[in-house]
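Morning!

As promised:
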Amino acid sequence: MKVLVNTKVNGTPVQEAVTPRSSLADFLRDDLGLTGTHLGCEMGACGACLVLLDGAPVHACLVLAVQAEGGTVETVEGLTETGAVADLQENFHDRNALQCGYCTSGMLMSAQALLARNAAPSRDEIRDALSGNYCRCTGYEAIVDAIAATGRARAAATESAQAASANTEAAE
Amino acid sequence: MTLHIGQPQRRENARRHLAGRGRFVSDLALPRMLHAVFVRSPMAKGRILDIDTEAASLCPGVLRIFTAADLNPRCQPWVGTLDHFAGMQSPPMNILAEDEVLWAGHPVAMILAHSRAEAEDAADQVLVDIEDAEPVTGGAPVLLPGAPRANEAADSNLCYETLLETPDVDRAFAEAAHVVEAAFTFGRHTAVTLEPRAVVADYDPASGALTVHHGTQTPYQFQDVYARHFGLPEGKVRVIAPDVGGSFGMKLHVYNEEMGAVAASLILGRPVRYVADRLESFVSDIHARDHDVHGRMAVAADGTILAMEVDDLTRIGAVSAYPRTSAAEGNQVIRLMGAPYRMPDYRGKLSVAFQNKVQTSQYRAVGHPIACAVTEALVERAAEATGCDPFEIRARNLIADDAYPHVSATGYQFEKLSHQACLARLREMMDPDALRVEQAALRTRGIYRGFGIASFVEITNPGATFYGIGGARISAQDGAVVRMLPSGDIHCAISVTEQGQGTETIIAQVVADQLGVAPERVSVTTGDTATTPSGGANWACRGAGIGGETALRAGRQLRDRILTLAGALVQADPATLRLAGGAVVDAASGAPRIALEEIGRIATYRPDTLPHGVDHSLTVAHHFAPVGYPFDFTNGIQGSLVEVDTETGLVKLLKHWVVEDCGRIINPLLVDEQIRGGVVQGLGPAFFEECQYDVDGQLTNGSLADYLVPMAVEMPDIEIAHIETPTQDTILGAKGVGEAGTAAAGAAAMNAVNDALRPFGACLTQTPMTPLRILDALDAALKERTAP
């Protein structure tokens, strides 16, 4: 027996019939072909399947597809298309903060969520924020470097935008 | 010309992964594809009395259920022995357990269904009646005469044993001023690649062709395995390894499940997909290590190391892995002991024992971490016994940088290493004198920090003496086809493979420099037996050293072809021309003569305009096998700084240092990240990772919630420096680097923990060094101090 799920995935309304037990990860990967979301443990420990559900990172392996009813889901494919993580991706690339690439989507989700709540995290704070993201290849340091560099650049951009707006206000 | 070799070129293929566009086997869905799930033995040892599949066969979506009687006859059994391991035994293995089950997790039935969920539902309905027997799970007593056998098809639990010794080893011990010794235990751990093992086998009965999409590092090896074990012509077997989500040696072994997927596809004539779930990975991926080592070291009064004697008992599974065996690890353990040191005498004994657990076999840095940890822990004890500090005793004993070539006490031939330079560089980086001052100050406040160092050698660029000599069909050579496209762009198809370490990037850099183009103009194809030449692919750190040299030589042959053709076109002696900036230029002045795209245009579309007899073939194939030394050894040294909480036993890893010499560095960005990743893969088993079994042979922590892998928050920053000693065996001069980090990280960390605990007289000799084991060591030391 299948049930209909209405949700918005990467900005596009989606209506699909799914089995009630289907995980959001299986729904994204198998039904929608969004294979950028990966499965590493299927028990919420490794972080490879992290996606944004209504803006917050969730383990797509632990959330049922039906729980996305009426919600909005963003995957690495969507965040790439909108350019929301373009700076993170560039810094990951510069720093070679990925090897096999299997953890990368989840790392980007955790990094994006961290930088949204803490614009300029310390290295310890970054390492702490990645405590649910397993990477076997890199040893993590390059990932920490890439996130720190992105945080610094975003903070500087915000600061200069604020300064510009303060100047404008002062001029007025 | 080395414009691009040596540059920190970014990985082009990383862009796909960053955009979520990786193409992994686990992403693949083919028309008519079936999903395979295995029913596994819940017991570690026993006899199968009955398998009832009737209820399961009625489950929705189920197409077929196989047991051994249906499936195994399709596959020739495999035997994991090598001829050069004299006296080695291992019983044959086939896909599904036929009579005996040999470990908890041994596949006994295979279900094919329209979805994985349906296959899993049906698996629950299969009734397997097993008369259980007492499993063999213990240590040394398994080798005593009359001990119960792990595998009734073997004549004892001894898979393999060997002894290495120099004639004067007993005299060295007899005459030594000091003999230090210790017993060590190194736990089992496993690879935990983030993408589990994955295979989609696709047999087309119409053409007789088998295509296997396989997440492996060695596609050609599997092409050969599938052809031979399933009786197919090799030319009808194609193995494609697309993006692979981590491998680390774990994905080059033959596994029951992959063979099962192929057999099922051959029988059913449709694609069969098997992707291990994480729980299955823990009970079917190879495990690693599992050694008990007793080690002794003979030392002169001045701290000169005279000899070592080690006895390594390593426990594997109930059969040896195929085709590389489960004995290669132990073999490397006893041959790498004492390798960085001048030490003239040695005795090493190895016993490899069967038991009813998951097979152990090659995993990143095969044998190295064990040999390094034992050697370096004994060096620390020798330093203590002779009043040397850790740097001083190593300076006294490391093979001198000007004393090459050198043959180790275990028979390894070293072309040229740089231990002394590495030691000096590490000393500058760590500043041990400052660390000692800080350590003393902190101890007065009840804070216990320690540092430890560990020298190492790493085996890279292995030749045919590694496996080929033992009869294994494992290639020591690699092949490349390099061609110039009509546009003047370059394509290289090569047998070394990519799992994220950057193989394709370094091959592009190497080829680019031979042909005077930017690496961006070189596209590289890997991982498909139908489109790339046969070769060994990636294992034992051979991608850069052997694959890179293959690409270099192929590139130079194409260069010569292009210059010959260009000579005919511009009417110049090819010897006066060279390639640079995407063009043929005058060798002396650098003045452009003709662009590559113009040569490509003429050779492809207007060969009629060429002078008669001019060869316009712009494709070359070249194969290269290592010559000269049997291996190109690398060397280095690592340092670790830790803080031990003596109340909780928790260890904070504060800092890690590596000085490494991998010869010519092709890409420093990628080399450093190989080292960092390797270090963390060495620190994991030193502190966290352990496959814990109970006496019944049940893995009790086989999930990612229970098995502790190193995470970002626990890992230190890792500072890296390099010494470059290129090998003279090749033009390129590159050696391997992938295993260096793993080789010595745990050894340095163990020395660091023991340095921190020195005021208590406590000493760890078992990994992982868990909080409980640290507290036990503190407790034991306390009891010893307060004993009457």
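Chain A touches chain B through 53 residues (CB under 8 Å).

Hope this helps with the figure draft.
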